[in-house]
Specification:
- The protein has 4 domains: 4-118, 2-Layer Sandwich (DNA Polymerase, Chain A, domain 1), CATH 3.30.342.10; 126-336, Nucleotidyltransferase, domain 5, CATH 3.30.420; 389-448 and 507-602, Alpha-Beta Complex (Palm domain of DNA polymerase), CATH 3.90.1600; 616-769, Topoisomerase I, Chain A, domain 4 (Orthogonal Bundle).
- It has 24 helices and 27 strands.
- The strands form 7 sheets. It has a 7-stranded antiparallel sheet with strand order 16-20-21-17-22-23-24. It has a 6-stranded mixed sheet with strand order 11-10-9-8-12-15, with helices on both faces.
- The chain has 770 residues and is an alpha+beta fold.
- Helices cover 42% and strands 20% of the residues.
- The structure holds a DNA duplex (11 and 13 nucleotides).
DNA sequence: TACCAGAGGAG
DNA sequence: AAATCCTCTGGTA
């Protein structure tokens, strides 16, 4: 089975030749593909003449054609050129002609444009292609803790889907997976050879765009090693992609798993170890990076072996993560119609945009231009109203049922045909159309561009889910097939859920404030109506946020509440448009509601659902988080606040004794700007600044931990990065009064305990009232 | 006490 | 280079 991995183009005899890269490094050349763009005009024939009069030799063809612009078939001029490099000059020249209004589709890269036009889907059938996926990782030497490509690479680890696993280095080991070569240069050469010999189709790593590949490239340059690992023998290329780099290996797609994981998982941090643990539920071997150089220099065989082992585990860990996430990347790739190199680095907005551009081609719709920078900035300065959040009924509640509108925003877009092309159409009278609460109205005669696409995606997803269910219910399910179906339905879900954000995205080609505001206004209307209806039915609404509603039935008890609840959902659904549905999400025994977006509930299975509370935040210490969690368990399951208070008292005692370990005290934070740019004094910034005085460097985006120590006046003065703090050096007062106390009093306070009673807890008095 | 900047979460 | 709504902290005046 053959699958398309990548596309590119070269020039032969002054003509572009599209190169299609398939698995096992097979290359197909496509000749005769010509680049083109469009020009709009109030008088296309005149514009055509005007262009012809310029006698531009690089222009092959000038024709008037028709495309749909906002539902209307509109004539425009198509200009076909000899070579992609002729596009920029001619685009500018023609834009300045008298009869030209604007230029369209001149900014779509040739090789990517070809994929849209040819309707060839990358990665289609990838699961049957037997792709060789290889993961690699490097360890480097650091002089005085500084990472600098003047220092050598010490080892390169490699693991691929054929089972080949090795670490290439120039020090010896008894470990069977270590291959020892003469020096760093030979190591790099051996790596290049290995990739070729193994016929690697997809090359993966973790943070390899911004670390491993740039480092390898620098060292290879220094040591005069040719990194010709491209399927066509081309060398590794580093591209600027916004603020980040992208390491491109032609025809042998390099996929950096870091941006993929960032997009796929919602985690507090994204180190390889964090991601590994969150997927597999167990820890990966990790060593302190400062130790790498020490172990390398040291005489101890065990330490060097540990380093080899660690490096091997990193490559193997990368491969394991790849096995989990690549199926989704492949599915997104074939849905969007773009190669995995691009797709794996795209944000949600860009993914949706490529999908729309592909559909625009299929429907002969003209692709709108990207907004200019000034326009995008202007759009971004005006924010608009979003979702509705109901003020919760604070305190403890029992027998709670929860509803969710299934895919609220996409279902609204479909139900009310929300699209730029249907907005305030002239074929419907307003009163006959879908009138949004904003006053905008949408056509009822013809389905809009985006609603139609979403409808097809939804249909495809339901079919895929059905097939998945069928497969899994077989007596001998085909696990591989099921996993692919699951990846496909997930990819469809990602696209479905990104549609609203795209409409409101300031740099979107299909940006529409009118559509975006209509969507959220409908959303607010639906949830408010549901709340009112629930109240009318005798239910008590205790919380609600965007698309979810939390209800109890006063004096109802479990059975009665669930029965009435299900009946209520039925009634609501009967009145909802076809694509919309209020789903019964679940029943909970007990729950405590603190503020908007902050609550905890416990199910019949004793499973806690905690949202927004400190337990869920990385910028709180473990000691505060675990104590809060324990209090929640005791309060929600055992219904025993007194026991909770006892527990808190024990924790406070331990803190006072100075027995708490660093890892229980550390607080995570992230710099959202460079340290010098902060205008206010804050603990996390002060901790970083102190570390910088000790030679560490920090910049925007860095994630780190700090502890509040004993030394200093203000909290900021006491804050120091964890690595500079000795065990036992912490401020017990801070951890009692500013960490554990607020976290637990949030819960106990919501149960009705008074300020004084809670303060007593902090001061560790005996709590008679508990 | 009121306010601000900043961080991080929910949906 | 997807959006808005929201709570909470520490520092300052």
């Amino acid at each position: 089975m053959e699958t398309l991995l990548d596309s590119s183009y070269t020039t032969v005899d002054e003509k572009p030749v599209i190169q299609l890269f398939y698995n096992r490094q097979k290359i197909k050349n496509v000749e005769g593909v010509e680049p083109y763009f469009y020009a709009t005009s109030s008088n296309p024939e005149e514009l055509k003449k005007e262009i012809e009069e310029q006698h531009i030799s690089s222009i092959l063809k000038i024709e008037t054609i028709e495309k749909t612009i906002i539902r209307k078939k509109t004539p425009l001029v198509k200009i076909t050129l000899q070579h992609p490099r002729n596009v920029p000059e001619n685009r500018d020249k023609i834009r300045n002609l008298q009869n030209c209004e604007d230029i369209y589709e001149a900014d779509i890269r040739f090789a990517q444009r070809y994929l849209i036009d040819s309707e060839i889907l990358p990665m289609e059938g990838a699961d049957k292609a037997g792709l060789v996926v290889a993961s690699f990782d490097i360890e480097t030497y650091a002089t005085e803790g500084k990472i600098d490509t003047k220092s050598p690479i010490l080892m390169i680890s490699y693991a691929d889907s054929t089972g080949m696993e090795k670490v290439i280095s120039y020090k010896k080991s008894d470990k069977e997976f270590v291959e020892t070569v003469k020096d760093e240069k030979e190591m790099l050469e051996a790596f290049v050879e290995l990739v070729k010999k193994q016929k690697v189709d997809i090359i993966v790593g973790y943070n390899t765009d911004n670390f491993d590949f740039p480092y390898i490239q620098d060292r290879a340059k220094e040591l005069k090693v040719k990194l010709d690992i491209g399927a066509d023998g081309s060398e590794l290329r580093l591209e600027r992609r916004g603020i980040d780099m992208g390491a491109r290996v032609t025809g042998r797609p390099h996929i950096d798993l870091y941006p993929v994981c960032r997009r796929l998982f919602k985690l507090p941090r994204y180190t390889l170890e964090d991601v590994y643990e969150s997927i597999f539920g167990k820890q990966k071997l990790d060593i302190d990076t400062d130790k790498i150089s020490v172990y390398w220099d040291g005489e101890k065989k065990e330490e060097l072996d540990l380093l080899f082992q660690y490096s091997m585990e990193d490559a193997k860990g990368g491969l394991k993560i790849a096995n989990e996430v690549l199926p989704l990347v492949y599915q997104l790739s074939s849905l969007i119609g773009q190669p995995p190199f691009e797709v794996s680095r795209m944000g949600t907005g860009t993914s949706v945009e490529w999908l729309l551009m592909k559909k625009a081609h299929e429907n002969n719709v003209l692709v709108p231009n990207k907004p200019r920078d000034s326009e995008a900035r202007e759009r971004a300065t005006h924010s608009f109203q979003g979702a509705y959040v109901l003020e919760p009924k604070k305190g403890i509640h029992e027998d709670i049922i929860v509803y969710d509108f299934r895919s609220l925003y996409p279902s609204i877009i479909m139900a009310h045909n929300i699209d730029s092309s249907t907005l305030n159409c002239d074929c419907c009278k307003k009163e006959d159309a879908h009138v949004a609460p904003t006053g905008a109205y949408f056509c009822k005669n013809k389905t809009g561009f985006i609603p139609e696409i979403l409808g097809n995606i939804l249909k495809a997803r339901l079919e895929t889910k059905k097939k998945l269910k069928e497969e899994r219910s077989k007596s001998k399910p085909d696990e591989k097939k099921a996993n692919i179906l699951d990846a496909r339905q997930q990819a469809l879900k990602v696209l479905l859920n990104s549609a609203y954000g795209y409409l409101a995205f300031s740099r979107a080609r299909w940006y529409s404030k009118d559509c975006a505001t209509a969507v959220t206004a409908y959303g607010r209307e639906y949830i408010k109506k549901t709340i009112k209806a629930a109240e009318k039915a005798g239910m008590k609404v205790i919380a609600g946020d965007t698309d979810s509603v939390f209800l109890t039935l006063p004096n109802g008890g479990k059975e009665k509440t669930i029965n009435l609840g299900k009946e209520f959902a039925k009634k609501i659904n009967a009145e909802l448009p076809e694509t919309m549905e209020l789903e019964f999400e679940g029943y909970y025994v007990r729950g405590v509601f603190v503020t908007k977006k902050r609550y905890a509930m416990i199910g019949e299975d004793q499973k806690l659902t905690i949202k927004g509370l400190e337990t869920r935040r990385r910028d709180w210490s473990n000691i505060a988080k675990t104590t809060q969690q324990k209090v929640l368990e005791l309060v929600l399951w055992e219904n025993n606040p007194r026991k909770a208070a006892d527990y808190v008292r024990e924790v406070i005692e331990k803190i006072k004794e100075g027995k708490i370990l660093k890892k229980e005290l550390a607080v995570y934070s992230q710099l959202t700007k460079n340290p010098s740019e902060y205008q206010s004094k804050a603990p996390h910034v002060e901790a970083v600044k102190k570390a910088m005085q000790e030679g560490k460097s920090f910049s925007s985006g860095d994630v780190f931990q700090y502890i509040i120590t004993k030394k200093g006046e203000m909290i900021s003065d006491k804050a120091r990065l964890t690595e500079f703090v000795a065990e036992g050096d912490y401020d017990p007062d801070y951890y009692i009064n500013n960490q554990v106390f607020p976290a637990v009093s949030r819960i106990l306070g919501a149960l009705g305990y008074s300020e004084d009673e809670l303060k007593g807890l902090g001061k560790q008095m005996t709590l008679g009232s508990f």
